[in-house]
């Protein structure tokens, strides 16, 4: 199992952004979607397995935007300039002068503009679930409705957007993702970032992208219509467009393995032998529930009618599958899945 190494990168105008590094090899920098939280995301099995798969053969660099996750608070304007300054700060902190760049959702626009303006730094560019012009995402009334809902009812709004972003996730994962969004930022930050997504227009920059580019988009994406991905690919010279099956906007949810396979192929990395797992077996879930109740291995064994050694083995496999190191982490994860 990979371990993420956390750090803080100073922004030129003040404040720091958190970043995480996993794996080894050439750099692959990820410009995140709407909201992120490096530690909480690492505790969600689907997201962790997705990033571990991308870390095999690459030094994967992820970050939280200013005001999100582990980064310092931020109450200034949300602009493309800040997006680019954040990429600059993180890549400088890890010593990445030239790297592969993957941007998804809101991060796709930032990644595309970075590649257009700083071609000497980008070896290959991958854009997932993006769009060239945020005004094309739904109509003006629906955009204002979503922004108003987030501003006045952050809990309900995060639940609604999770249904849109991750319809292929199981109910427990959707509940976890909704809580994850609320923990990743305040309502004010969430609204400001979504408004930025709606206002961005990178159409003038796309024609200046020089790096070999792969554009990925799911055909059933309800958050970002696939026409946006086609428009992005059609505007970048020589870009390759691959449309994938599925409805989820989040790349780690649904058929994450297809996303991993395409990214690795494009970057010249060998295919992984294992699929990206997203959950526990029925027995492992049963054991996790008993751990959450506070039972010891002996008590779990008695409850299930198995040997204590068998109970220990089940718990060890759960920890390995989820990437946890303690019973307490398993208990917290289970409670988060079932609330």
From TrEMBL:
It holds the Pfam family GerE. Residues 273-338 form the HTH luxR-type domain. Keywords: Hydrolase. It comes from the Bacteria. InterPro entries: AB_hydrolase, AB_hydrolase_1, AB_hydrolase_fold, Sig_transdc_resp-reg_C-effctor, Tscrpt_reg_LuxR_C, WH-like_DNA-bd_sf. GO terms for molecular function: hydrolase activity. This is Alpha/beta fold hydrolase.
